[in-house]
Design a protein that fits this description.
homotetramer, Arc Repressor Mutant, subunit A, Tetracycline Repressor, domain 2, 2 domains, 9 helices, DNA-binding
Chain lengths: ~200, ~200, ~200, ~200
Amino acid sequence: MGKKETAARRLAIIHTARDLFAEKDYYKTKISDITNRLGISHGTFYNYFNNKSDVFTHIIKGYIKRLEEIFLKDNPRLSNNAIEFRNQLVRLTNELFDVFIEDQNMYDLLFFRAEVAGLEIKKEIKKLFKTAELFIEKYLAHGVNKKFLKSSIDASLNAKAIRGMTTVALEDLMENDAPLQLKERWIISLSNFIIDGLS
Amino acid sequence: MGKKETAARRLAIIHTARDLFAEKDYYKTKISDITNRLGISHGTFYNYFNNKSDVFTHIIKGYIKRLEEIFLKDNPRLSNNAIEFRNQLVRLTNELFDVFIEDQNMYDLLFFRAEVAGLEIKKEIKKLFKTAELFIEKYLAHGVNKKFLKSSIDASLNAKAIRGMTTVALEDLMENDAPLQLKERWIISLSNFIIDGLS
Amino acid sequence: MGKKETAARRLAIIHTARDLFAEKDYYKTKISDITNRLGISHGTFYNYFNNKSDVFTHIIKGYIKRLEEIFLKDNPRLSNNAIEFRNQLVRLTNELFDVFIEDQNMYDLLFFRAEVAGLEIKKEIKKLFKTAELFIEKYLAHGVNKKFLKSSIDASLNAKAIRGMTTVALEDLMENDAPLQLKERWIISLSNFIIDGLS
Amino acid sequence: MGKKETAARRLAIIHTARDLFAEKDYYKTKISDITNRLGISHGTFYNYFNNKSDVFTHIIKGYIKRLEEIFLKDNPRLSNNAIEFRNQLVRLTNELFDVFIEDQNMYDLLFFRAEVAGLEIKKEIKKLFKTAELFIEKYLAHGVNKKFLKSSIDASLNAKAIRGMTTVALEDLMENDAPLQLKERWIISLSNFIIDGLS
DNA sequence: CATGAATGAGGTTTCATTCAT
DNA sequence: AATGAATGAAACCTCATTCAT
């Protein structure tokens, strides 16, 4: 087996584990569930990961990294007026939603299943949420600065509120069979709500 | 042991279980953890509950019931204008926040720990969320009807969005050492956001 | 089951474990070997001991304590001449041999099986040997002082040598079917060797 | 790979295995520990040995052979008086000690680690000890015959006793950082003890 | 009702060994 | 010969639950 096949098998384990963790639960997912589904021996699992929590952590960390990239790529300072702000908002939520739609396990794993994982990984997820909130807050602050958002708003709490709205939108998309159409509705609804609410 | 003492011990088990499930996790909480903390034999537990998941379900169902009462008590038709709407909003969120502040375990158990419970109970929680969303939607529809909310709003999605905002507010309150002061800030911020966003 | 029966079962586990550890090996002895021989479930074992190494340590520590008592009871200063010294030597080796003859597992467990146990217990055994050697050395030093032993002897090395002779005697007794007769021969032989060699 | 390289690799495996068995334990030493230290694949191990216990047995048998040679080389009949006897004693213990000092793993492996080996190899070690004791006994018998040792001694037990003394001396040397100086002290001490005790 | 000893299903992990390349 | 992926027997340990006292 060459390097490529080895990497492929590692990936297969990751994907199967990810599916099962999302379907069941960290605890209810047995190593044998993963290996049975792959048609390999349970011992093989341990040639690729040290233990169960190892794969889990790997999956979650991958998700965290992917989301952080979105926040780092964007620049809150680009909009100069409400129209540009809306465009930025639309672009950003669209990208975020796409990431979650693409990997339907992401939402469950990140928001719920990680609960039972070790404290360390929970902290990292918490940090991710904080990052997202601070990111939104910068947007709002910039808007206030540029005068296209009201100066009276409570930027910190509103940032959190927006994070909450977005989370529910994600949940809604995940439960829907045709998420792409629903996505458009959510993007419009959210941007209207935010802009009319804050400007 | 009389009926009263029996009921009291049952309650004590529920409370201790509730605390531990919130502190640790359903899986990480052992029957012996509960009974040890109560200073009773672990065998005694089984005189009050059939098994571990039994107490857990009981706790979650209690929470569900308690929250449903809030929604059933209120009447979305009472407001005739934006000012009355705001008052109703303030009253409602205040009451909701109080319930969660009073029992600090509620948030964690309902939103995260319940994940590991059986499918049936998860469905009930999902239903609770739906109930809440429909309840909010009725509010919005009434407002549109009475013309103090814009007719262009997507009532269904906005109801979900508001549920998301509220959830994040709860999370924020739970993490705060002085939730009562923060509560006021959230109530104002939320009602401003909602009213300015939708009216 | 009362306290007495509980203690009895604990003792039964210790004895069976002790026998098996001596028969086989720490590693080759499985928890199920112990419980099968006792006709109990393997789970029961864990109601009495935390784990395998727990019983093992318990057994070894019991042995160490028992032997230390022998050394602490005796007083190296009692003899004033070679005859008294011989008597003391005879009494002491006799007592030591009896302890090992009484529990035939002691020798193997202490000298060989403990090898595979944790480092801590190995250190304790090493300490026991050092204690024994220092104890013998005091005897020799007292003898030199009282002039019934040669002043030219290397007390430290001779003490070790005597420990070695005694160990081999023990091994020989353990392998013999009629250890009591052989014991007398060893006691005479050892005391002659020591006294004629050092006085 | 030619015959020479093959033999060299086999030897390298033996040496590394020997070191690890002495450092840790038979059980605690994994095949991969051996191969990792050698920088080869663990599969390669099985081109040189059938299994784990195979190397172990090989090592122990090598030690046994080496020690037997010492006993076979010497002739107990060479001394005619106490002085010659002492010289022979000194020469012999010196040689024995040197063998063990040269390969510091030998003592541990032969006296303790071999415990976990199969019954067969344990019997061989026991036989080696018996050989050593019979060898010493012949010395003593010859001394009694030539009248430079007391006729009253219990040659059989004294031979064992001397084996025990020698073993402790070895142990002491192994634990010491400067074994060569200590060796001289032990040789003097042992020969004095033996000669004065038995003659 | 209370107790706590006993049970055993069930899970995780290790590692010697095999074997196709 | 060398490699290292795959295998699976085998062991440890947990803990919910039962039940006799």
